[in-house]
Amino acid sequence: MTAAVSKPSPWTGLIAGLGLAVLFVLSLAVGVSPLPVNRMLSDPEAMQLLAVSRLPRTLAAVLCGAGLAIAGLIMQTLSRNRFVEPATAGTAQSAELGILLVTLLFPAAALWVKTLFAGSVALVGTSIFLATAHRLPPQQPFLVPLFGIVYGGVIGAVATFAAWQADLLQFLSVWTNGEFSGVLRGRYELLWIAALMVAVAWIVADRLTIMALGRETSIGLGIDYARMMQIGLVIVSVITALAVVVVGMIPFVGLAVPNIVSRLMGDNVRGTLGWVAAGGAGLVLACDIAGRLIRYPYEIPVGTVMGVVGGVVFLWLLFRRGGHG
Amino acid sequence: MIRIENVSFKHRATPILTDISLDIPKGGVVALIGPNGAGKSTLLSLVARLQPLQTGSISVDGLPVDTTPGRDLAKVLAILRQDTTIASRLRVRELVGFGRFPHGRGRLTDDDNAIVDGAIAQFDLADLSDRFIETLSGGQRQRALVAMAFAQGTDYLLLDEPLNNLDMYYARALMRSLRSVADVNGKTVVIVLHDINQASAHADRIVAMKGGRIVADGTPAEILTSDVLDAVFGFRMRVETIDGTPFALHQF
């Protein structure tokens, strides 16, 4: 759709890219052990710190942020509702329940096996959510997110109960509240699959835009609606499960970023996908850096910081919408 | 040719369509008329494979609609549904451009762009082409949707009450555009209309439905008679012929 997109000026892209680069470097530099920038390349200890801890942590934040923002975008497309995202509509809770169950049943399973299991449960949970969301009257757009919150709450409660019974409540909180302090080399690489999912989303970007126009328009334009629904569900579930298992869930990224980008640039996914991914990466990076600085040298988990930031943004979106009728 | 054979359709236990058989040869404008609940929209959505067939068969140019890949059908047949709601923030030009999706899978060639520009000009949307759909009035949005269906460039065009929301000027303009694509480009237009006088003025053939059955089928002169219209709509109305076109005075 190249010719049809009225592109934002190249300066916007340049400034956004620079901003992201600055955040990236900041994230490498900020931490409890000082990282002297001037002799970073000559000091083997500094190099070691960078390679083992700071770089993996920064990459994990970028991958999680970009992935979760895209997952949110796709979930909003599939449900045709702007107010849902994986963290609040049952996907994350299903993934948490999945990882809890597999940890109980096969504690020795490899991390990728656990992720696969969590992803499968997330897929089932999200499918049930969407099947129900499509039955709700479209004249009441707030019913879908409300239902999602209740639905996610119920699944979350089941997970909490199971964890309590098995004395695993502490584990559960690791998965429900994202933080990057535990990210080291060798412990985050699965997240690159999220980048792969974003690439898949890029390939089907035009089809996603058309899906947002509804089932009938999609079929009329020759799109295999059911197949696209499945692809979208897999992308959302895999990204969410990866985030839950590797760093824990980060709320609101998937809600705030796609909504802001849509406000500014519209909903042509081919044109906005890159912005949504970059926005998610930047937001999570910024929140992680803030979490490291606010109570320095202690850390506040990124999930908590994002909860505060995202909550404010969500309220702003709701009131803005109300103001527009 | 659109061939509809022995099609019946039920919504739960309620019969919507009963044993419909209809051939629509290529070329020309066919109007579907009838009271609310006659099954016109359902018939159109079955031809456009928006709902699964229950009994009977439908084919378009020999392609059975239930087994032909959707992608292939989308190059032959376009449909505009009634009351399409667009919640996406797309610009008019982007929306019309997506009409070309079946041909290039999202990549617009120069030819595609020319077709999109043509559709935008034809429906008087040039000034609106950079506006978001959600900022348009109902009639402007309807024109953008019709332009998108036109841009799809199919031989068959199914339109479900496209005159909704259009003022007299644009209703007339749309009907004349349909007439011209049928006459000049040899396209086949099947259109659900509530205004039987629009059907009389612009269609070659009128198919009248009632209670899920076809009750009359013929030229405007054959359908627009007091007796036939009474049988279809349930009341008598005067029909006057002006310059060879019959008009029903249904307001009295």
Automatic annotation (TrEMBL), chain A:
Sorted UniProt keywords: Cell membrane, Membrane, Transmembrane, Transmembrane helix, Transport
Q: Where in the cell is it found?
A: Cell membrane
Domain of life (superkingdom): Bacteria
How does this protein lie in the membrane?
A: Multi-pass membrane protein
Q: Does the keyword Cell membrane apply?
A: yes
Question: TM segments?
Answer: 12-37, 58-78, 98-130, 142-164, 190-210, 231-253, 273-291, 298-319
What InterPro entries has UniProt attached to this entry?
ABC_BtuC-like, ABC_transptr_permease_BtuC
- Name the protein family: Belongs to the binding-protein-dependent transport system permease family. FecCD subfamily.
Q: What is this protein called?
A: Iron chelate uptake ABC transporter family permease subunit
Q: What is the lineage of its organism?
A: Bacteria, Pseudomonadati, Pseudomonadota, Alphaproteobacteria, Hyphomicrobiales
TrEMBL record, chain B:
UniProt keyword annotation of Ribosomal protein present: no
UniProt topology in membrane: Peripheral membrane protein
Q: Where's it found, cell-wise?
A: Cell membrane
The record, for SUPFAM superfamilies, names: P-loop containing nucleoside triphosphate hydrolases (SSF52540)
Q: Which Gene3D superfamilies match?
A: P-loop containing nucleotide triphosphate hydrolases
- Give one Pfam hit by family name: ABC_tran
Q: Which residues form a coiled coil?
A: none
Q: Which InterPro entries match?
A: AAA+_ATPase (IPR003593), ABC_transporter-like_ATP-bd (IPR003439), ABC_transporter-like_CS (IPR017871), P-loop_NTPase (IPR027417), Siderophore_ABC-ATPase (IPR051535)
A molecular function GO annotation: ATP binding
Q: Where is the ABC transporter domain?
A: 2-236
Q: Which UniProt keywords apply?
A: ATP-binding, Cell membrane, Ion transport, Iron, Iron transport, Membrane, Nucleotide-binding, Transport
The source's domain of life comes to Bacteria
In the record, the note on similarity to other proteins reads: Belongs to the ABC transporter superfamily.
Stated name of the protein: ATP-binding cassette domain-containing protein
What is the species listed in this Swiss-Prot or TrEMBL entry? Shinella curvata
Upper lineage? Bacteria, Pseudomonadati, Pseudomonadota, Alphaproteobacteria, Hyphomicrobiales
